[in-house]
Amino acid sequence: MAVPVQWYLLLSAAMFCIGVFGVLTRRNALLFLMSVELMLNAANINLVAFARLWGNLTGQVFSLFTMALAAAEVAVGIGIILVLYRNFSDVDVTRATTMRW
Amino acid sequence: MTDPTWPRLKLGSHLLPGLAAVALFAVLAVVVLGGDFGAAEGFPADAGITAGIGYAMFNLSFGDVPSEGFLVAFLTIAIVLDAALDGAVMLAKREGDGDDALTALTDGGRVRDALGGDETAGETNNDDTVDGGDR
Question: Disulfide engineering: A31 pairs with which of A26, A63, A69, B133, CB 3.0-4.6 Å?
Answer without folding.
Answer: A26
